[in-house]
Amino acid sequence: MKHQNRSVLDEMDTRDGRLELVAYGSAGGVWIGVDRADGRSLGAIELRSGSVEKQLMGTSRVEPTWALAWGAVAPGIVRAHVRNDEGELFPTKIVRLPTELEREYRAVWGIAERCHDRCELIGYDDDGMLFDESDPRPTGSAPTDLERLEQIRRHVHDSLRYYATAYLNGTDEDRERIRAHLATLANVMSIFEIKSLDPGSMLARRSKIIDRYLDDARRDPWMPQEGGPSG
Question: What does the pLDDT look like over 125-141, one tens digit per residue?
Answer without folding.
Answer: 999 999 999 999 988 88
